[in-house]
Design a protein that fits this description.
Elements (H helix, E strand, L loop, with lengths): L3 E10 L2 E11 L4 E5 L6 H9 L6 E6 L2 E2 L10 E4 L11 H11 L4 H14 L15 H13 L5 E5 L7 H17 L4 E5 L3 H7 L2 E6 L2 E6 L1 H6 L4 H6 L6 E9 L5 E5 L4 E3 L12 E6 L5 E3 L8 E10 L3 E8 L4 E8 L9 E5 L5 E4 L20
Parallel strand pairs: 3-8, 3-9, 6-7, 7-8
Antiparallel strand pairs: 1-2, 1-4, 4-5, 9-10, 11-12, 11-14, 12-13, 14-20, 15-19, 16-17, 16-19, 17-18
Bound molecules: adenosine-5'-triphosphate (ATP) and magnesium ion.
């Protein structure tokens, strides 16, 4: 059991505040992933929870107990860093046992815990090796093992896989997912820059920007219903296309958006979400864009392909959107192959079109918009 509550956490370095009042409740056994641009405060918050930084104000609460003044080693928290920071002169076994010996555990207890962790992480055959005789992935597993043996209530990972090559990242990501399954009561917070890690590992994702939380939600909530332009463009790869335009009412009273590129979209906006004349932004994901045939009518974009990336199962089309001077990215699946200078028409389903007000906040839409753009 380890419910973790962060209440109005602020952190300043000298005169510079880098966390501006973070509020977050994490349930026992939850796997929460922190994402956000470099410098937004993810590591600072993790280190503050672990007690490696003192917070300037606010409350850190585990299972109802305020731990602000509890020593790091007494918080029941283990942290795994990007750099494995193993002791080079100690074997794998010794690296995992060291902290426990310092803490005064009996030899038998230390042995039991090390062998248990080694079993979980498939390190049994490496216990007598020195770190220099291990691969990067194996070293990171030792670092995780060193955290496991402490039997923590809360597990913190700060970009643990970012030093590994692509194949090893995938393998170790799956190890971490399995580790979570084998420790269902342990609360985990995991920082990553990797979209796939965030989407696949998280029960909930927390998106940070400049020391504030932008949005908290399940991966699919953030993907489907981003609260603002920042989250919309941060979650998903390649990023959501953003187009600008102006809100207008058509003769039936329905709210439309006339985009700067000339295309008119009926977005099914709630009437109180936006006023006539407002600048609005519209977002469409590359993977939610459909190539339309010549017969398609309604809200259809046109453009010229500037560049094609062939990724095997999908082609990424970099399109110069007609009438706007903007680039628009499309993920094109299927057999048809595309080439530079091809002129194409494309569209998207109304439910896949996101709308944002002039401040970047998502505008609520009617559940079933009228005047769906048709698609070919
Ligand atoms: N010891 C320090 N002294 C002064 N400023 C610091 C210190 N540590 C971090 N900062 C600043 O605090 C801000 C947040 O840094 P932090 O390391 O938490 O970012 P991050 O989100 O982990 O970034 P990254 O994704 O690059 O790891 C940055 O502006 C950073 O320069
Ligand atoms: Mg960091």
């Amino acid at each position: 059991m380890a419910d973790l509550s962060l209440r109005n956490i602020r952190k300043s370095y000298a005169n510079l505040e880098v966390l501006h009042g973070i509020d977050l409740d994490i349930k026992s056994g939850e796997f929460v992933v922190f994402v956000g641009p470099s410098g937004c405060g993810k590591s600072t918050l993790l280190r503050s929870i672990a007690g490696l930084e003192t917070i300037t104000s606010g409350d850190l609460i585990i299972d109802g107990e305020r731990i602000n003044n509890v020593a790091p080693s007494k918080r029941g928290i283990s942290m795994v860093f990007q750099s494995y920071a193993l002791y080079p002169h100690m074997t794998v076994y010794e690296n995992m046992a060291f902290g426990l010996r310092i803490a005064g555990l009996s030899k038998a207890e230390v042995d039991k815990r090390v062998r248990n962790a080694a079993g979980i992480l498939q390190l049994d055959n490496y216990l007598q090796r020195l770190p220099k005789a291990l691969s990067g992935g194996q070293r990171q597993r030792v670092a995780i093992g060193r955290a496991i043996v402490r039997d923590p209530r809360v597990f913190l990972f700060d970009e643990p896989l970012s030093n590994l090559d692509a194949a090893l990242r995938v393998a170790t990501r799956i190890e971490i997912a399995k580790l979570k399954q084998s420790m269902p009561d342990v609360t985990m917070i995991y920082v990553t820059h990797d979209q796939v890690e965030a989407m696949t590992l998280a029960d909930r994702i927390v998106v940070f920007k400049d020391g504030y939380i932008e949005q908290v939600g399940t991966p699919i909530e953030l993907y489907r219903n981003p609260a603002n332009l920042f989250v919309a463009q941060f979650i998903g790869s390649p990023a959501m296309n953003i187009l600008e335009g102006k809100a207008e009412k058509d003769p039936t009273g329905s709210m439309k958006c006339i985009l700067d590129c000339g295309v008119a979209l009926d977005l099914g906006l709630l009437p109180d979400g936006v006023s006539v004349g407002d600048r609005v932004s519209v977002g469409i994901r590359p993977e939610n864009t459909q190539i339309a045939d010549a017969r398609a009518n309604g809200a259809v974009f046109t453009g010229t392909i500037d560049f094609v990336e062939h990724l095997g199962e999908v082609q990424i089309l970099y399109v110069d959107l007609a009438g706007s001077g903007r680039k628009y990215l499309i993920k094109a699946y299927g057999e048809r192959s595309y080439a530079r200078m091809d002129r194409i028409r494309f569209t998207a389903r109304a439910q896949d079109i996101h709308a944002f007000d002039v401040n970047g906040a998502a505008i609520a839409k009617r559940v079933s918009p009228v005047g769906e753009p048709t698609f070919g």
